[in-house]
């Protein structure tokens, strides 16, 4: 919520990259507000609500997980263009372009979730073996490929490319003479800023992969018996990723720490607080 308020309120933070972080923060917030509180209903031995409510409940986790994955892909593309093609970044990644991409991201997530759960909506409760169960059926192989294999492959390929270019730029900077013109000095400063942003978002993506891999790894395990406690822990790990993202922001983004201080001290209620310089 602090990330959402910070980027939404302070005009200086409304950059294309931060708009992607805003969309990711909305996913995190929805997990905390709508997904986690209802997990207790799935832990209980009996599902107390209707079969339709069971299917509808799964819509929110499916949408948030799909949106998180797509947002990670967009963030990776954003860093790839910023590092590998910096001269055209400002023209390719405008605020309007990013807003359209984020909108399409959420539309695709909602559509994919609807198509995935469509069979369960036609006849709610058809897959449960006894009363009091909340069970749905999805095509695990299709979900694994679309929700994990394809986007994660794209993320890894893009970040490997970013890493290679970043190392190349770092070596190039070291080889330059210290005394340079102001223009070149500004360019180096911008490049370092972009590299730092790439490193921070790289940590976000790495944590994302560590939290999501066990869940989708279970999909590849086939008929291997997995205890209910292990199953619960693995899915909790997916949701826990939403808690880790803001923590990473707090550690790596100075502007976020400054924004939190301004929000907690109610500075944002003052006139013209939107124009405060936080970067």
Question: Which short descriptors sum up this protein?
Answer:
mainly alpha, 279 residues
| CATH architecture field | Up-down Bundle
Largest sheet: none
**H/E element order:** HHHHHHHHHH
- The geometry reads as globular
| Tally of strands | 0
Total helical elements = 10
Helix content: over 70%
Strand share of the residues? under 5%
Structure classification: mainly alpha
The count of domains is 1
Q: Please give the alpha-carbon distance between the first and last residues.
A: 20 Å
Taking pLDDT < 50 over at least 5 consecutive residues as the criterion, the unreliable ranges are 181-188
Radius of gyration, whole Å: 22 Å
CATH topology descriptor = Rhopdopsin 7-helix transmembrane proteins
Q: What is the CATH C level class, in words? A: Mainly Alpha
Name of the CATH homologous superfamily: Rhodopsin 7-helix transmembrane proteins
Overview of this structure, please?
This protein has 279 residues and is mostly helical. The chain has one domain: Rhodopsin 7-helix transmembrane proteins (Rhopdopsin 7-helix transmembrane proteins, Up-down Bundle), CATH 1.20.1070.10. The protein is built from 10 helices and no strands. It has helices spanning 2-9, 16-35, 39-43, 51-84, 86-92, 95-122, 140-175, 182-220, 228-252, 254-264. α2 packs antiparallel against α9. It is globular and about 70 Å long. The model is unreliable at 181-188 (pLDDT under 50).
């Amino acid at each position: 919520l602090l990330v959402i308020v910070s980027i939404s309120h302070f005009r200086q933070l409304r950059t294309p990259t931060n708009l992607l972080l805003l969309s990711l923060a909305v996913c995190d917030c929805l997990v905390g507000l709508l997904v986690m509180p209802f997990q207790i209903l799935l832990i209980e031995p009996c599902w107390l609500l209707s079969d339709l409510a069971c299917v509808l409940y799964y819509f929110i986790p499916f949408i948030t997980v799909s949106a998180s994955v797509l947002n990670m892909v967009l963030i990776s593309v954003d860093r790839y263009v910023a590092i590998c093609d910096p001269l055209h970044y400002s023209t390719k990644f405008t605020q309007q372009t990013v807003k359209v991409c984020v909108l399409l991201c959420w539309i695709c997530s909602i559509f994919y979730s609807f198509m995935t759960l469509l069979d369960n909506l036609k006849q709610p409760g058809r897959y449960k073996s006894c009363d009091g169960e909340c069970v749905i059926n999805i095509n695990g192989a299709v979900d694994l490929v679309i929700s994990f294999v394809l986007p994660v492959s794209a993320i890894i390929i893009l970040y490997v490319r970013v890493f290679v270019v970043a190392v190349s730029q770092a070596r190039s900077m070291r080889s330059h003479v210290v005394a340079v013109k102001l223009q070149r000095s500004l360019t180096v400063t911008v490049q370092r800023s972009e590299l730092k942003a790439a490193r921070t978002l790289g940590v976000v993506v790495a944590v994302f992969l560590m939290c999501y891999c066990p869940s989708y790894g279970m999909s590849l395990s086939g008929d291997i018996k997995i205890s209910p406690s292990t199953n619960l822990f693995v899915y909790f790990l997916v949701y826990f990723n939403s808690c880790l993202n803001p923590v990473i922001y707090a550690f790596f983004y100075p502007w976020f720490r400054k924004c939190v201080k301004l929000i907690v001290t109610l500075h944002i209620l003052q006139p013209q607080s939107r124009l405060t310089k936080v970067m």
